[in-house]
Amino acid sequence: MTNTIKDVAKKAGVAPSTVSRVIADSPKISAKTKMRVRAVMEEIGYYPNVHARNLVNKRTNVVGVIMPSASYAPFHNPFFPEVLRGITAQANEGKYGLYLSTGQTEADILEEVKEMVHSRRVDGIILLYSTKADSVIPFLLEEKFPFVVVGRLPNYLKTLSHT
Fold this sequence. Notes:
The chain is an alpha/beta fold. The protein has two domains: 5-56, lambda repressor-like DNA-binding domains (434 Repressor (Amino-terminal Domain)); 59-162, Response regulator (Rossmann fold, 3-Layer(aba) Sandwich), CATH 3.40.50.2300. The protein contains eight helices and four strands, in the order ααααβαβαβαβα. It has a four-stranded parallel sheet with strand order 2-1-3-4, sandwiched between helices. α6 packs parallel to α7.
């Protein structure tokens, strides 16, 4: 059976809300209490439920990485594995997961991006491509969803990037 936050609290002699604050590294909790609670967490093998924390924090700690259409064969270009290596290193350092996606067509990619945004699957998106008639960027702008483009911006976005 999996240990719960209540198990940690009971063994550490604190309230479950205190355990939650220790997990969030709240400055309201003393260093001594944090050490005691963390020691109990380690002792009983407790790991916070990431999905529950994400619901409370309204964050996923996941970044979507959108590759060009699969028909383009992005992995044949040495640029993409190298960029992915850098993105992965930074994501790991910041304790973010990556959601890598591509599609057979640009319409497939747009549908996947819409799903990511509307289902709140990711906190932001990294686009590893852009095209003149790209429908993903206007969608992300309309949704006011955080994103970056790696590479050249389409001409219509160059003026927006300086504002």
